[in-house]
Structure formats: C-alpha cells, structure tokens
C-alpha cells in the first residue's frame, strides 16, 4: 500500500498542479517510486497515452516529474466542456455515453477506486491533487475530487492558498471553518503559494494563522517564473505581448484546446508568441496559427462574428504563413459537415484556404504518431472528432501544405525539432546554436521547480505528516 499526500486548494488556480509536480519530482529525487493522481478534472488540454487513451495535461507534467509514463489511472475522469451541449465525459481514457437511469456518482466512484487501487499497488508514494475548492458546501455531496478522495485513500491533506491576489489568511481559515470534523482530521498543514517579498514580514501572520486553525504552515513558496505546461485557460500565456523578433500569433478561440502545442516555441531565442482575440490585435505575424478547439464549428462562427475571417484571408493573400492545428486545420478547409450533430449539426463553409472537407462522426480518433516529414522528425498525437479528406476524396498527408498555408491533426508538432518544423513552415529564424532539446529543457524546469519547493518548505515535516497519518503501515519514508 502506497503512502500518499494530497494537495487541496482554497480556490482554483492557486497552484496545486505545480506544487504536486514539485512533490513528484522531490520524492523521485529521494529515491522513491512515485505517481500522481487526480480523480477528475475539467479541462480542454488533453494528451494521448501510449495506449491511445486520453487524460489531462496536468497529470502528464506530474508523471514526467516522477520519471514515469502517463496512464489513465493517474486521472480516471476528464470532463471536457462543449458549446450548447452536455460536457463530454472521458472515463478511463475513452468517451462515456451515459444512458438514462445511469447512476453517475456510482460509476465515477467505482472508476476512481479502481484507478487508485492500481496505482497504490505499484508505487511507494502517490501525490494526489484536488480540484477547485473543497469547501463548496452547496455541492459537497457531489464533490468527487477533494475530501471524498482523501477519505477513500486515507490521505493527509495540505491546503494550498494563493497569497498573490490577497486574502490568503481568510481563505485558509474560512476553508478550515467549513470542514466537518472528519475532514478537519485529514487536514494536516498549509502551503502558502506565489509569495512576493520578505518572509520575515509575513511571519507574524503565519503564527496567528496557526493559532486560529491549529495546523502548521509547512511552506511559503515564492512566486517563480517557470516555463512548465499550464493546465487550462487560466494560463498567463494568453496575456503575453510581442517582445520582438519573429512574431507568432495564435488565435485565442473561445474553446481553445491543447494550446500547450506551442509552449515548445517559447524557448527559442528571437521568437515571441502572443494570443489574439480580435482583428485589432492581429497585426502582420510571421506565422499565424489557428489552434485546436473542442467546438470547431462554433468557434468558426465566433471567428466570423468577431470580424477575423477577412483579415485572415488578407494575410493569406499577402503570402503570410498560416498553420491550422486540429480544429484550426478543419476550419481552413472548404466545408464542414455535421450530419450526426456531434458539434452543432448541419453544414458550414470553411475559410477555403485549403482544398479539404471535414465530416464530423461519432467516433473520436485517439492515436500517437511519429515519423519524418520532409526530413523533420516528429513524435506527436492525434485527438479529434471528424475525418478530413481532400476535395478529390483522398486522405491528405500528415501535414498538408499548399503554398504558405499548412494544416495538420498533429498535437505536439513542435515538441521535437521545433526549429526544423518552423523552417518547413517557411518561418525564417535567426541562426540557433546549442539549443537544448525540448525534453532536456523541460527536465531543467522540473528540477528548478523542485529546488524552489525544497528551499521554501519543510520536507521533514511533510514526511512526518505522511508517516504519522498512516502509522498502522510498516512502510516509512524519509528525506
């Protein structure tokens, strides 16, 4: 039976995912086999495992920190919001079609327990991440991500509070107040996250907080600039501005998904990435990207309503480079058809920049693909509804190119040879020397994350909490 520690948050976006990733890295560095676990998540950023199954990106990052291959047991339930319809439910990596009379809570609870049992049999330590806040008292009975999991797995909980927007003491104390007695027994300590300033100025508040909640503050983690994949649309990447050099603009679609496809480009010197959501922000980029989306037809309607279709067509006529990825690729075609109502139903004209047609079907394509295209290697994955064919009925090549317009279903296109892929897309880059591989770059960021956590948290206390909480088990771990 694995030992475990769970991170819950006073709210969404307090940094649970990053701190869980830090703990995964630290336990691995300390010589233990470790895995992440999050019972369910709501996000549009997803990933395809080696088995061809779908999970959210946050647990992929945590698995990479732990030095293991991501599996669906690390996140048994993924909820993907959809425009105008019920959300899509991914259970153990595959789309779940609920039937009338199905007991969702029973189905979900069984899946969560099965995944937990699998992981706890394989690893020394499991780092669990909650979702949102555990103190939403109006929906607590249906909350399968927080105290339900702490009780199911018999895990101690560290509560994460974000000090950056203010009010962290009230949010921590208020969350503790709304716990019942059993939940308060699981709550064993506090992590203050995203701190800016001198800790000595904070110390009086920390001591007063401990006196109020009768729990220790086990760490104050400083705000640190790290280049690690974000979990969802709360990312700060969307507000980045053009910093000069090669200009890459990504359309910020309302249902944008897998924007992590472009994170690998951020490490390239002399290149900047910005996200645009209206014609005034578009400018004259060296490369315009239409990204993936969970609602291709709905977001294409938005693109037209906001007035972006004509400026995109003008950029194409000027010879500016344009790339469509997944849903963005489908938009670049001549026609989109949805006879089964997978998205919004009916037919719609595309942007007509590529001679392609897409038909949405009930089955979802989920597969990993690797190979070489025009001398550039890729190791990527596909995840989409719909089949795209050329106007003559043939399936297009893995990356379809027509002049300055390109499209592909490949997610992770730039995770390998990013510079080579950009040159293939006719983007002129400055001469690059000694650019580390994206994997090496990510590993260095994970180590920096772990180092920052170690330097600012009491790992001995965290080990003590884990061991004492499960004192009935023979296994003990130390830093």
From TrEMBL:
Q: Which domain of life is it from?
A: Bacteria
Q: What does this protein do?
A: Catalyzes amidations at positions B, D, E, and G on adenosylcobyrinic A,C-diamide. NH(2) groups are provided by glutamine, and one molecule of ATP is hydrogenolyzed for each amidation.
The chain positions of domain CobQ/CobB/MinD/ParA nucleotide binding read 5-226
GO BP of this protein = cobalamin biosynthetic process
Record keywords: Cobalamin biosynthesis, Glutamine amidotransferase
Family membership: Belongs to the CobB/CobQ family. CobQ subfamily.
Q: Does the keyword Transferase apply?
A: no
One GO MF term: catalytic activity
| InterPro entries the UniProt entry points to | Class_I_gatase-like, CobQ/CobB/MinD/ParA_Nub-bd_dom, CobQ_GATase1, CobQ_N, CobQ_synth, GATase_3, P-loop_NTPase
The pathway that the record names for this protein is: Cofactor biosynthesis; adenosylcobalamin biosynthesis
Answer yes or no on keyword Transmembrane: no
Identify which residues the record assigns to the active site.
326 (nucleophile), 411
Its name, as the record gives it, is: Cobyric acid synthase
